[in-house]
Amino acid sequence: MSDVLARLRKLQSADLPVHGGRTLAYVYDSGLAEVDRVGREAVAAYAGSNGLDPTAFPSLLQMENDVVGFAADLLDAPPSAVGTITSGGTESVLLAVQSARDSRLDVTTPTIVVPTTVHAAFHKAAHYFGVEIRQVPVSADFRADPAAMAAATDDSTVLVVVSAPSYAHGVVDPVEAIATDAAARGIRCHVDACIGGWVLPYAARLGRPVPPWTFAVEGVTSISVDLHKYGYAPKGTSVLLHRTPAHRRPQFFASASWPGYTMLNSTMQSTKSGGPLAGAWAVLETLGDEGYLRLSRDVFEAVDRIVAGIAAPLRVVVPPDSTLVALATDDSCDPFTICDEMAARGWYVQPQMSYDGHRATVHLSVSAATLASVDEFLTALGESVAAAVAAGPVAVDPGVAAFIAALDPATLSDDDFDGLLAASGLVGESDSGSLELPGRMAEVNAMLDLASPAMREALLVAFLDRLSRPVRGAAGGPTPL
């Protein structure tokens, strides 16, 4: 058994660090060892518990009601509000769209209206549930345009969506104006606060300007907020809150049309581990309201210091309302090289591709744990920018660029995809025949940045398919216990 755990630790050594505040995407670190310990032990204690049947595991039901109650208080929910724990922000989004669609069975071709900055999870929901998604261009400040959103809404619209904040730019949409219009038409309005919902209420308490976005806005009918982001809980928990039980009821699924037990589910999952819920509950109980206020103070101090430390050729795309910062460059360098250079200095920052006429950016998801190392971060960023300027912008061969521009992703064969993946540097073969990933991604990202969104999607799907291939005959069988 110890050999298996040693192998596990060796495998994990190649992953990005989840502690220390140096990974500014994918993970959210409180910087508090005790919080991490409590969360992990709670996950382990409930790893075998099954949330499928709340009568079989009443402790899970109690913890879910406790966590939902905490979220409801935080988000100004009325006494009628109800909620559900999901596996993450995407599942919360899927259920928000599904419940809106199924609340209007009279609409044969349902649509949802979203700003172009809405999270891609809504595109996934529309794809899964056969709903048309209407994307509305945003204003110059990257916030949703209320008038344009209203103009895109009609009798087929079952849901209007706004963000608090949007992921790509970190700004809060004008929720009040959009939700008010939706309410006047009898349409649901969902606020995607998956990434901001656990910090924006504390930002307001700390005296920071935060536009109205919670259930205090009358037209808001549902809100999603993740606990494994700024709730600093272990991965795998989000809360989907509805204003009333009637708003949530279409979310439930029941089936007695088979000879087994009557299936009754509140989420996409049936069987679900009690571990993530227990971990979230334990972290909430450990930190409490005052603990989250302190962590929010830390993360906003880190954000303010980072924003103040940004210098040319970098610029902040738009002043952030929350904990997300987007940085753009001028023509002297490119963001993809900056990301590579930051990685070489032990920092992970996320590249974002160009879109709708806007330049590619460097994206930062700042955690409370980052505060202790802000000076180191700014030093590394300055060095990375200098190195990127010295190297110059990544150049894609004009012939390759023309070739990519002429491609139709709908007509490419598997052999075409394999050739493109190899040409782009996304995959390669080692001497042993195993898959090798590129050590630096700037050239790959620059090539992807030239591709249309549809071609990017096709290439990355092919890339994922090539990554996700089973290893056959490599193991000697189970290790004896």
UniProtKB/TrEMBL annotation:
GO terms for molecular function: aromatic-L-amino-acid decarboxylase activity; pyridoxal phosphate binding. Its cofactor is pyridoxal 5'-phosphate. It comes from the Bacteria. GO terms for biological process: carboxylic acid metabolic process. Pfam families: Pyridoxal_deC (PF00282). The modification N6-(pyridoxal phosphate)lysine is found at K229. Keywords: Lyase, Pyridoxal phosphate. Belongs to the group II decarboxylase family. Sphingosine-1-phosphate lyase subfamily. This is Glutamate or tyrosine decarboxylase.
